[in-house]
Design brief:
The protein is of the alpha+beta class. The protein has 2 helices and 3 strands, in the order βββαα. Helix content is 35%, strand content 39%.
């Protein structure tokens, strides 16, 4: 099951929270978005449609290119 991750990152002398997606130790994409609700929506969709984790990096890359 996909889960949301949270971490603090420094951007131009300011600390911000960014969110990523985690699935097992092998599939982890950090810093997907600074919007928690956006990443929560992605996690919900990936779990609902049972996205195979081998595609996680590809679908995140597609999302970021939109």
């Amino acid at each position: 099951m996909y889960q949301i991750t949270e971490e603090k990152r420094a951007f131009e002398n300011e600390e911000k929270t960014v969110y990523g997606i985690y699935y097992d130790d092998e599939y982890n994409v950090s810093n997907v978005s600074a919007s928690k609700s956006t990443v929560e929506g992605l996690v919900e969709k990936y779990n609902k449609y049972k996205l195979d984790p081998i595609h996680l990096h590809d679908v995140i890359e597609d999302f970021l290119e939109e």
